Amino acid sequence: MRTRPLGRTGLAVSTIGFGGSPIGSVFRPVSQTEAEAAVRTALDAGINYFDTSPYYGATAAETALGRALRGVPRECYVLATKAGRYGGPATFDFSAARVTAGVDESLARLGCGHIDLLQVHDLEFGARDQIVEETLPALQRLREAGKIRGIGITGLPLTALRAVWERARDHIDAVLSYCHLTLSDDTFLPWARELRAAGVGVINAAPLAMGLLTNAGPPAWHPAPEPVRTAAASAAEWCRARGVDMADLALSDALARDDVDCTVIGFASAAEVTRAVAALTREPDPALSRAVKAMFDPVRNVTWPSGRAENN
């Protein structure tokens, strides 16, 4: 599988990234055997980028991934996790003390000597000043201590991500955006190109828009507003009538892009990994893509709020 440099980190990451939240049994129960099969299938296919968080499954995802990678030479994979969002009553804590302790906890669960990319998780839920003046400097100190190699930021509102990057760009090596580079939303594209030109790694996550762009439709909890859900349902019906799975179309479209370094997809099984890898080798049908994208035109780039009101 093709790899690309992740900005200025010195890391080379696979086109497809392994999203680790599903193996934390976030969406359905996933056994350790299933998790290990998914990870091994990914490694065999050339996927080397693994993304997780202590928040996923209340640390279950990190634990499962660490066990699945046990015995794999450290140079064979790029490991990314996050800090600032956790389980329990204190879901968000961006303080220097908590993120510093959190990195040690993640290292223990993952069973590795260092984390390649440590990302501030969903920074729109924090105070911008704290992220810039306390969280990121704490991560810089962890980098100087050799516990992490690169620093990233993640979140939904592009306004929040960009505002932090503008104030702390010297600290930030990579930006992960989700649900903003899909069949229905391309708002991340201009900034993604700008970031790459500046030497910042660009990661696109959730190319299926958290299940929205599937024939089965989004889960009940999906936060998309009703007009977007209605457009997605119409597009799914159109695809089904033609024997097309909208998820395959969405994956092929996302993976054909050269504007990002890595596209992260959540995997719960070896079969899901195999399906995504097949999408990588399949040429998108331009006519189908145009037709489905046109169905989203009335609601194109319509998103939903996340985090603090001032961050949206």
TrEMBL record:
Classification via CDD domains: AKR_galDH
Q: What residue ranges are annotated as transmembrane?
A: none
Q: Which InterPro entries match?
A: AKR, LGALDH-like, NAD(P)_OxRdtase_dom_sf, NADP_OxRdtase_dom
Annotated NADP-dependent oxidoreductase domain ranges read 16-281
Query: What Pfam families does the database record attribute to this sequence?
Result: Aldo_ket_red
Question: What is any one of the record's Gene Ontology cellular component terms?
Answer: cytosol
GO MF term list: L-galactose dehydrogenase activity
Q: Which domain of life is it from?
A: Bacteria
The protein here is known as: Aldo/keto reductase
